[in-house]
Amino acid sequence: MTKERLKEEGDIIKLDSELKSVVDSWESRVIQLTTDIVIEHLSTAKPSTDNSSNEHRDPENQTLLKNDLEQVKHSVDERVGALKTQLDSLRQELEQEKFKTSALPKVDQFESLRQEFETAKIKVESLPGLEGQLIKLQRELEIERQKQSSHSELEGRLEKLQQELETERQKNNSISILWEHYQRLQEQQLVEKERGDQLERRVSDLVSQASEARLIIDKREETDTVQIRQSLRQSISTPTQASPTPAGSTAIKYDDFASMPVTRVELDKALREVDEIMAGKDNLSTNKPGRKTGRILRSLMADLKLVESDNDQSGELQSNINELKEWVKTHEQKLTEQANTNSAVQSRLEALRSEQDSERSTPSLSNTVSSEVKQIVRVEISSRMHEALPRIKERLESGLSEEASKRQSLEEEMKRVAVESMALREQMESIKSRLQESGLGLSEEAQEHKKELASLAQRIASAESAVTMGRGETASDIEELRMQSANLRAWQDSFTTKSLCKEIVDYINATVPNGLQRQMIDLVYRVDRFEARLNTAEATGLKRRRLDDGSVAAAPRGPQ
């Protein structure tokens, strides 16, 4: 009896160990399947999310996708943990009850759960396709942005070329200004040439007038000397040929002679008239002595003023004019010296008059004295004119030579400027041709870029519309995924151990129909037999005997 009981207890322990091994294998298999599914979904979702985070630029969609994936992962982890806890609780219940329950669970609930899990798996697998579409749209947007950046670079190049064109236009304007300045300098050169020619003509006219005046003065001097000699001869010859006169008549002649000599007042008056004639206006009606000399001096002063005005306009003959002014000052000093000499002559005339009064000479001496005075004045004026005219000529010639040298240097400078302007003009023409060529090329490129920009704008508009459509689709899909996750969470919250046990048993029966069920039937049969034996052993008709170890056992019926 004890052997059978020990055998039955060993069978129960063996059955319990076999059941534990089956449950452990099934648990490990379920955990492995769930972990493989979760790892697969996470591995498929993670690169898509990484690519979307690297390439996708929409922060709202990115955060939504991340949140949804985290929720799915969290729900799967919670489901796996719940399954583990449920398996542990089932194991504990199985150990406690030791297969006392005979009712087997149904397979329909487990099949429905598996179908829901498969649908959820399909929907989760459809997420990478949507993410791929989003990534494709992001790449298209990046390409459009790169094209827009290239368009901005082209616009920058166009702006630089426009600035270069503006600088070239400014250079061309400066070249045109230089050319106008060169033309003005040429015009000024022509004007200066004309003025120089006029000055040369005036100087030649002055020289000719001075030579004519000199010839006239020489002729007058010759005629005056001839007249003086003739008058002297006549005055000398008249007393010898004349008859003697009475004493009263001689007294009258001496009185007339005394009144005839030139007085100081008359000499001053004559000098004053000469000064007025030389300094006043030219009157053609008068034919007084000194008129031509005054005319020459006035023409010289007018020429000097003209030269001074020309020098004020051109700024090149100021030094010569200053020298001429100094010469005029020296001439004024010489005129003062001449006035002093005139005063000396006047004093000499007074001395001669006193001598005439004392000697009572003939009346012809007054004429000789006046003629001598005139001759002295004329000689002095002619000598001064002879001295002044060569100086004026030399100074004018030196000024003209300096002006000619300056004019020559100016011509050389103008030639150099003309050469430089021609070179600049050639450079300007080459730059214009290059700019025109580059401008045509740039205009063509700009038109092509405009066409590309128009096509890009159309593509961007289509991409934006596709993005908006994709956003709507993804939003609907994400909302559906949220609803499914909510349903899954609700199912997980309402999940019970009994249904899980039924599903596990159904699954075991479906997968191993001939092994575990047979073992369980045998175990039930053995348990029934064991209980029957126990019941029979505890019946009232049995005898008991004491064993060697002190325990009491029922004695078998019948013969031993």
Automatic annotation (TrEMBL):
Biased segments, Basic and acidic residues type: 350-360
Any coiled-coil regions, as ranges: 73-100, 127-178, 393-466
Start and end residues of each stretch annotated as Disordered: 44-63, 232-252, 337-371
Alphabetic keyword roster: Coiled coil
Polar residues compositional bias, start-end: 232-248, 337-346, 361-371
Name of protein: Uncharacterized protein
